[in-house]
C-alpha cells in the first residue's frame, strides 16, 4: 500500500468519504500505521463534525492498539522530555512541528533542550494530539 500524504484540506466531511480515504480496520504493518497517523495528524487540532469525530476515534483506536503491540514505549522509565522526543520521532515530526503544535515554532527546541518546561496548556495539547493520558507528561 502506498503512503498517504494529507493536509487538513484533504479531509472529507462525511463518514463514507472518510472511509474511502482510509478504511477503519486493524493495522497490519508500518505502512498502515503511518497512513493512519497521517490521517489523524491532518485531522487533529481542527473542529470536527460528528462523522469526523467518530472516524477519528475509530482510527485512533486502531493506532493505539498497533502502538501498544509494536511501538510500546516504557513511559514509566522516561522523563517527560524523553517521552516527547520519542513521540515526535515516531510521528515523523520535527522540533518546529512540535513548536507549531504548541503555538510557537521556536518552543519545540526550547522544550526538548530543557530550556522551557511544559505548561498545563501544552500538556493538554500534547495529550490530545498523541491520544495519551496527560499524566505521562508530568
Q: What would your notes on this structure say?
A:
By secondary structure, the protein is an all-alpha fold. It folds into 2 domains: 8-70, no CATH class; 75-137, 434 Repressor (Amino-terminal Domain), CATH 1.10.260. Helix content is 57%, strand content 0%. It has 7 helices and no strands. The chain has helices spanning 15-21, 30-43, 50-70, 80-90, 95-102, 107-112, 120-130. Helix 2 packs antiparallel against helix 3 (50-70). The mean pLDDT is 88.
Number of continuous helical runs: 7
Outline: globular
For the record, the count of structural domains works out to 2
Unreliable spans are none
Main beta sheet: strand number and arrangement? none
Radius of gyration: 15 Å
Task: Please state the average pLDDT score.
Answer: 88
Query: Count the strands?
Result: 0
Give the class from helix and strand content and strand pairing.
Answer: mainly alpha
| SSE arrangement, N to C | HHHHHHH
End-to-end distance: 38 Å
Report strand %.
under 5%
How helix-rich are the residues, as a percent range? 55-70%
